[in-house]
Amino acid sequence: MAERMSLVLFSGTVDKLMAASILATGAAAMGMEVDVFLTTWGIEAFRKDAYKTNRRVSSDYADYAPVMLEAMAAKKAPSWMENLLGARDIGAVHIAACSMTMELFNLKLDDLESIVDEVTGVATFIERARESKITLFI
Amino acid sequence: MAERMSLVLFSGTVDKLMAASILATGAAAMGMEVDVFLTTWGIEAFRKDAYKTNRRVSSDYADYAPVMLEAMAAKKAPSWMENLLGARDIGAVHIAACSMTMELFNLKLDDLESIVDEVTGVATFIERARESKITLFI
Amino acid sequence: MAERMSLVLFSGTVDKLMAASILATGAAAMGMEVDVFLTTWGIEAFRKDAYKTNRRVSSDYADYAPVMLEAMAAKKAPSWMENLLGARDIGAVHIAACSMTMELFNLKLDDLESIVDEVTGVATFIERARESKITLFI
After folding, report:
1. What is the C-alpha to C-alpha distance for residues A88 and C107, in angstroms, rounded to an integer?
2. Interface pTM (ipTM) of the complex?
């Protein structure tokens, strides 16, 4: 059985999404399964088409946001969404959205990007997370 | 021996406290022990009566805060404190406050909500965290 | 082989750096190896001399920042950098900077504080993280 990395993706800012996507890519490249559990602002970030206009950066570093976004554009760095799609191409990346948040925000699976596999409860995530080698809340 | 989930609860915003309480509830429901180590703003959030008026939301999503708080009220979603109390009813949930932060903020155990079990050092948390199946910094 | 704690240090605010340094100190004191992987704002925080003037605090608690910084000064609490240097004195603390972020920000190892050991890719971090007892994203 492949080793697993389980991420709770709570944040919806580009800098944290980028970090999550790089960790997912790295883990997939090493043959690990990757489970991503979207909740709260992580779900907002995966609303259909939202990634195309999302330029939100951690407000702790709001003053650096323009510099970072420009550097990413200048270097033609792949977006976090491209990273995630790439990670899925090379490995097993599973993305689920938290059912409680979905209900709170009146959302259905169809409202999210197609890279999201399903809507599940927290118990399903925990059952798999406790068999994971790496667990992170982002 | 029951499997364990260990959370460092650094944040004091309602959205992250809600995520922590849902993870704690899910883990307790699956028979896991839950250790919560409060530090910094996590301790502020557990000051006596603070939860009754705390409407702080991650500043990354300050513009969505009113929408989220209204949705939670409209859906009559249980508060994070109610979730934690419920998790304790069904399982083993242990909440400790970081002794270094308590000293820094001139706080005593009596200054916190009674759901906080004790004040401990970081070594005690780590000793138990390293035997945990899931470790998260929230 | 010593047990290991692996931290992804994404944040660059003094309050989170302090939490990371205290966790590192606690783990080192218990004989654990500590791996720190700096990325994004975590790298900014380790730029040469940056720690001497960094007074950034989580914007979620911007209103409490002056109180916390004054309390830390009044109590003569060691800085997060002093904690990390102390942790290294008593144990095995390894600090690496994410090569992708370094390239994005046009940085070289020489631009960072000497406590940073090397620049590595995410795969190297994950390879060690998956053998860790504690994994946290800060």
Report:
1. 30
2. 0.96
